[in-house]
Model the fold of this input.
Amino acid sequence: MTVETPYISRYEQRVKLIGEAVQANSKLKEKEATALAVHILQAIDSAPERIR
Done:
């Protein structure tokens, strides 16, 4: 019997990680924290490498 593991992209993993951190440190619900995590990740990814 083969067990299939669902594929989760690195982007989705990063969004989940940031979303969990936001949710743990605020009163936001999961959906709101995830939406904020997407914006945070876009800001981080758009920053030049030398600034990161």
Q: What stands out?
A: DSSP finds two helices and no strands in the chain. Residues 11 and 41 are 9 Å apart (CA to CA).
